[in-house]
From TrEMBL:
<dbReference type="InterPro" id="IPR023395">
    <property type="entry name" value="MCP_dom_sf"/>
</dbReference>
<keyword id="KW-1133">Transmembrane helix</keyword>
<protein>
    <recommendedName>
        <fullName>Mitochondrial carrier protein</fullName>
    </recommendedName>
</protein>
<keyword id="KW-0812">Transmembrane</keyword>
<keyword id="KW-0496">Mitochondrion</keyword>
<keyword id="KW-0677">Repeat</keyword>
<feature type="repeat" description="Solcar">
    <location>
        <begin position="244"/>
        <end position="345"/>
    </location>
</feature>
<feature type="repeat" description="Solcar">
    <location>
        <begin position="140"/>
        <end position="228"/>
    </location>
</feature>
<keyword id="KW-0472">Membrane</keyword>
<dbReference type="Pfam" id="PF00153">
    <property type="entry name" value="Mito_carr"/>
</dbReference>
<dbReference type="InterPro" id="IPR002067">
    <property type="entry name" value="MCP"/>
</dbReference>
<keyword id="KW-0999">Mitochondrion inner membrane</keyword>
<keyword id="KW-0813">Transport</keyword>
<dbReference type="GO" id="GO:0005743">
    <property type="term" value="C:mitochondrial inner membrane"/>
</dbReference>
<comment type="similarity">
    <text>Belongs to the mitochondrial carrier (TC 2.A.29) family.</text>
</comment>
<dbReference type="InterPro" id="IPR018108">
    <property type="entry name" value="MCP_transmembrane"/>
</dbReference>
<feature type="repeat" description="Solcar">
    <location>
        <begin position="38"/>
        <end position="125"/>
    </location>
</feature>
Amino acid sequence: MASTEDVKSESAVTTIVNLAEEAKLAREGVKAPSHALLSVTKSLVAGGVAGGVSRTAVAPLERLKILLQVQNPHSIKYNGTIQGLKYIWKSEGFRGLFKGNGTNCARIIPNSAVKFFSYEEASKGILWLYRRQTRNEAELTPVLRLGAGACAGIIAMSATYPMDMVRGRLTVQTEKSPRQYRGIFHALTTVLREEGPRSLYKGWLPSVIGVIPYVGLNFAVYESLKDWLIKSKALGLVDDNNELGVATRLACGAAAGTVGQTVAYPLDVIRRRMQMAGWKDAASVVTGDGKTKATLEYNGMVDAFRKTVRHEGFGALYKGLVPNSVKVVPSIAIAFVTYEMVKDILGVEMRISD
């Protein structure tokens, strides 16, 4: 039988060998499995926290945006940002401003986690392919960042779309709504049972098409703007550590969000209307005698665009844009900055810029 000293000696040798192997992997640019898993987990946590914090901060504006997008044009309740927020406060109280936010966070936290992580992985993959094609040590360009952001947006949107579907219905739901959902799980099971699996993905196509410019431009503008400010040292915004301050990064995020949402907003309106099709308070048309006709039904994305523009004009594609713009400026900015700060706190080595 081996002595205690022999066991300790063998354990020490094993530990040294393991450490040496991990050091070798590190020198070769390969992470040990446990270290790689920890890094991935930290990155996902950082993305999830960023999404939850940023979305909760602008929850009242998010709810008002959805209500403006789908309200009946012949029974106007919300005439603008200030009036709309006051109406919600008066009719539903403080909690009304945050109705649907729990569902929203349940969707946005995994969505944000997957989105940021997918962007990092897509960036590495696209850059690797680009370097193989050009045979030089090229850096990420705005176009490559746009492509990586588009990939990340599609993956994140597809993974969490059913949650977005029921979140929209819970947000719009009132006492007079045709269906009453008690929560996320009840809404998911009810829609699945009464309307079928395909209903959970109503509006998915315009969502995916819209996410390409929206998320793609968010990442491309934010990262490229930061990169330009750091390399050019424009306006003296770079500190002694060659880093940008929080206020500057917030401004970069605000610019990115504004560009992205302006381009993609009409697709967001169409997506929401397709999700809400058949609801009493959703957009409808008027017959010749002035009475409200049955709520519109859409036979697809193109049909939804056509009917919306025909019955309500081109401006209907930008309903809710003002509160959405006010929401996007802090939301995207907070998300990017929170993500980077949480990654710093957790000690994740890689940043999206790298």
